[in-house]
């Protein structure tokens, strides 16, 4: 683990009280408050969110240490970095789609690159059954003790479930409640435990109420939901988002569709319906573009806590032989005007055309996309 990762994790503590050039949302009707003046670092907490971390069969042939090495400025520089780990650590034999089992080293490398919190409530977490999930959680427990990572969305037993769902994080005196849940799993549950947090109102509502009782300053919902490969959110997603807002959630950031979806706000609450893939071997249309979201939380001069307008970065997952000889996710903005560095020049063109297409369909990052187009002219 690098020094930056070590240092920022000193800011993050698990609170177990039950036992004891980025883009903003130009399409929002009502703007989230913006920073009026520069605030001291001690009064600001930044949280970064990344989408689906996949491990397809082809990826198993490559060194995973290159997958997100370009994202250090996004992960390690944030106080808290969160990602959806859409695979199990069920042990050998390793496998990709449709039943994922990745090497332990993949999760360890993500932690070394600055990812602090693993989201585990997704449709692939039971791909290898209850035994696969138990082993996955045991590895994460070991990483918690040795590397300081945290996880939420599933648990081995009742006590662990209560302590990590919601996951309470304290950083610089601010209390964050993370609520992760999934619409379902591809494999059926075999027993009550290990348990995966489900997209059921009784379960989610109980977590929201628990977060309030634990004194959360900000409640962040992280649903695994929606229709795959659709650039616009579904009616079900919207209804759930409205319900989450009515329950008191402050920020909603979704995963699962494997593409970026439109974003909006509901009664002032930012709703980012889908981040897309952070790392994968997918090549279907729109599946290689992703969003990284940076949310800043500040304590103003009066002592009040405020969430500033979220900022977005477009990312692009390059496949082997396109930009480098490995998988590598990059910030689109960092590589503008560098087409000559691509091994396959048409992949650079694909990146820009995908960005334009997704921007047109979703309305996300319209100002940033237009700036990118001007820079390319």
Please explain how this structure is put together.
This protein has 9 helices and 18 strands. The radius of gyration is 19 Å and the shape is globular. The relative contact order is 0.16. α4 links the parallel β4 and β5. It has a single domain, classed as Metallo-dependent phosphatases (Purple Acid Phosphatase, chain A, domain 2, 4-Layer Sandwich), CATH 3.60.21. It is α/β, with parallel strands linked by helices and 377 residues long.
Question: What are the SSEs and their pairings?
Answer:
Blueprint: H1 3-9, E1 13-14, E2 44-53, H2 72-75, E3 80-85, H3 104-112, E4 117-119, H4 129-147, E5 150-152, E6 154-155, H5 158-164, E7 167-171, E8 174-182, E9 195-196, H6 201-213, E10 218-224, H7 235-247, E11 251-253, E12 263-266, E13 269-272, E14 277-279, E15 289-299, E16 305-307, E17 311-318, E18 328-331, H8 345-362, H9 366-376
Parallel strand pairs: 2-3, 2-14, 3-4, 4-5, 8-10, 10-11, 11-13
Antiparallel strand pairs: 1-7, 2-15, 6-9, 7-8, 12-13, 15-16, 15-17, 17-18
Helix content: 25-40%
> How do the SSEs run, as a string of H and E?
HEEHEHEHEEHEEEHEHEEEEEEEEHH
Calculate the mean pLDDT score and round it: 89
Strand content: 15-25%
CATH class: Alpha Beta
For the record, the count of structural domains works out to 1
Protein structure class: alpha/beta
Main sheet makeup? 9 strands, mixed
Q: Which CATH-level-2 architecture?
A: 4-Layer Sandwich
The total count of helices amounts to 9
Distance between the termini: 41 Å
- CATH topology, by name, is Purple Acid Phosphatase, chain A, domain 2
Going by CATH, the homologous superfamily would be Metallo-dependent phosphatases
Measured on Cα atoms, how large is the radius of gyration? Answer: 19 Å
Low-confidence stretches: 13-22, 24-39, 367-375
The dominant shape is globular
DSSP summary, beta strand count: 18
């Amino acid at each position: 683990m690098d020094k930056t990762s070590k240092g920022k994790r000193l800011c993050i503590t698990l609170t177990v009280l039950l036992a004891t050039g980025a883009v903003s949302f130009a399409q929002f009707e009502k703007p989230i408050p913006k920073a009026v003046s520069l605030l001291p670092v001690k009064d600001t907490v930044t949280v970064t969110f990344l989408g689906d971390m996949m491990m397809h069969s082809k990826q198993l042939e490559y060194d995973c240490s290159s997958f997100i090495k370009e994202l250090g400025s996004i992960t390690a520089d944030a106080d808290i970095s969160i990602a959806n780990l859409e695979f199990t650590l069920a042990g050998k034999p390793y496998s990709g789609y449709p039943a994922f089992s990745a090497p332990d080293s993949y999760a360890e490398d993500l932690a070394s690159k600055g990812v602090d919190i693993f989201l585990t409530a997704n449709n692939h977490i039971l791909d290898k059954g209850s035994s696969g999930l138990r082993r996955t959680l045991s590895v994460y427990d070991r990483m918690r003790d040795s590397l300081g990572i945290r996880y939420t969305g599933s648990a081995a037993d009742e006590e662990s479930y209560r302590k990590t769902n919601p996951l309470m994080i304290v950083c610089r005196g601010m209390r964050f409640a993370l609520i992760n849940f999934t619409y379902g799993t591809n494999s059926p549950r075999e027993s009550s435990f290990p348990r995966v947090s489900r997209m059921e109102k009784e379960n989610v509502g109980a977590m929201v109420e628990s977060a309030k009782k634990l004194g959360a300053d900000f409640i962040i919902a992280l649903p695994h939901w929606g229709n795959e490969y659709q650039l616009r959110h579904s009616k079900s997603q919207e209804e759930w988002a409205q319900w989450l807002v009515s329950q008191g959630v402050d920020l909603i950031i979704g995963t699962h569709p494997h593409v970026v979806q439109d974003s909006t706000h509901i009664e002032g609450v930012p709703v980012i319906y889908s981040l897309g893939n952070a790392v994968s071997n997918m090549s279907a249309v729109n599946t290689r573009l992703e969003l990284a979201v940076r949310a800043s939380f500040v304590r103003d001069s009066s002592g009040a806590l405020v969430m500033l307008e979220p900022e977005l970065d477009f990312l692009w997952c390059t496949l082997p032989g396109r930009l480098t000889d490995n998988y590598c996710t990059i910030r689109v903005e960092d590589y503008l005007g560098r087409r000559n560095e691509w091994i396959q020049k048409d992949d650079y063109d694909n990146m820009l055309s995908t960005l334009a297409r997704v921007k047109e369909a979703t309305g996300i990052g319209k100002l940033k996309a237009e700036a990118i187009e001007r820079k390319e002219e």
